[in-house]
Each structure stands twice: as C-alpha cells, then as structure tokens.
Amino acid sequence: MSRRPQGKQIAIRVAGYVTLVGLSVATAFPFVWMVLTSLREGNTVFTEGIIPRAVTFAAYQQVWEGVDLPRHFLISLWITAATVAAVVFLATLAGYSFAHLEFPAKKTIYLALLSTMLLPGTAVIVPLFLELKQFALLDTTTGLILVYVGTSLPFAMFLMRAFFETLPRELRDSARVDGAGEFRIFWSVMVPLVGPGVATLVIFQFMFTWNEFILANTLLQTPEKLPLQPVLFAMQGQYSTNWPVLTAALVISVLPIVVVYVRMQRQFVAGLTMGALKT
Questions:
Q1: 244 falls within a domain
Q2: Chain segment 56-88, per-residue pLDDT in tens
C-alpha cells in the first residue's frame, strides 16, 4: 500500500524535472543560437546546422572596429550608471519617507506619483520631446538621463516603499531615542536592512535603461551620441543582414547585464523572497 503513493510522488517529481528542463532549454536556445551564430562565417548561417563547422572571431573584430562599438558601449554605460545611481538614491529616500514618515498630503502625493505609472511610455514621447527642446536639453545625454530618471522613479519608489514597510518602526524609534537624526537613522539603520531591495531595484533599473530603445532613438539625433541599442537596431538591413556581425554585437551588449546579475544574484533572490513573504 505504501509503494503506490511513493511511486506516484516519484512520477510527479520526474515530470516536474522534465518540464523544467524543457523550459530551460527553450529559454536558453535563443542565447545559445546567438553566440554560435556570432562564431560562424556569414555564408553559413542558414546552410549549416546549429553548431558551426569552423569557428571564427572575425565578426567580433569587424563589429568592434567597423561600427565604433566602444564609443557607443561607453555612452550606454555612462547613461545607465548615472540613471541607476540617481534612481536608487531618490527612490530609496522617497520609499523611506512614504513608509516611515508623516507629512501633509502624504497619501495624495503617493497616489499622484503612482498614477503616472498608468501612462504608456509612447504617450509621453511628444511632450518630453517638446519639454527637452524648450530647456535646450534635446540631443544631449543629460536630457536623456533626466527623462529616464523621471519615468523610472514612480515604480522604483513603489518598490522601495514595499521593502521599507517590512522593517519594524521600533528600529527607528530606538535609534531616535539614542539621539540619531532622521538622515542618520535612514542611512545607518534602515538602508543596510533593505540591501536585497536595493539590489532588486539596481537589476531592474539597469536592465530597463540598458535595453531602452524608443526614447534614446527619439531624443538623441546625433549618431555619435547614440547609445548601444539604436546602433544595434540600425545594423539590421532592410534587404539583407550580416547575422554574425549583428549577433556578435548583441553578445557584447548582453555581457554587462549578465555581469550585474551574477554579482548581485544572491541579494536579488533574497529581495524577491522578502517581497513574497511580506504580509
């Protein structure tokens, strides 16, 4: 009698493993195909199997020198780093304020900020274009960074507020009794405890800013100022595409996201778990 339930459990577990393996293979296949395509010759992309017969790094050399990839890579890195730093700093302050401080019209301001998340990004492109033109910030990386920060803050603030609300108010009260000021409480007591939340925000914001295309392609008009994603899009031809060169550029563009995630993986998973256990 006891063997049947045990056998059923084994069958269910095996079916679960098979399903997870299948999903993992389906998810990883595009990336594997992209890497393998970047290592083959251009005339063998659709005439050979998935694994190239001859491996060559000519596509990486061509994209690095012919497309001026280092310039656009560094531009993307600067825009992303500045945006992430500004968003994390401002969203952390705002999240702490909305979670633990009391001030007039607190709920009204919070709901007003959250309501901006209901607007689709394409609906604000024209107003943003005209606003940056009015302030002489059009076609500048500074203007693009300000747009990224402004459009990303509502969600980032919402996320950090949820993490700060998991912290007991007794911590702030104890620090205040010991004579700590409000900013001291925020920086030395509260922020170290929401490290997983900060890591989660860093990864989300880094991925969004690094991969963003529409705003960058609209608000920057000088080719030399473009970040990486519009340049990659321009490499896709209307009638023909050099797939090894394009995939080589895509592999290079993916590396920063992989590095950031690997470095912050544990805190990211802890942050997701922390949010899932919030009551």
A1: yes
A2: 888 888 888 877 888 999 999 999 999 999 999
Domain of residue 18 covers 3-38
Residues 24 and 75 in one domain: no
Model confidence pLDDT, tens digit, residues 172-229: 878 888 777 888 888 888 888 888 889 889 999 999 999 999 999 999 989 899 999 9
Residue 45 lies in a domain: no
With 0.70 as the threshold, say if the pTM is over it.
yes
138 and 240 in a common domain: yes
149: amino acid identity, one letter: V
162, 92 contact by CB (below 8 A): no
Rounded CA Rg of the chain: 24
Q: How far is CA 62 from CA 52, 56, 180, 243, 267, in A?
A: 19, 11, 58, 12, 37
Domain count, the chain: 2
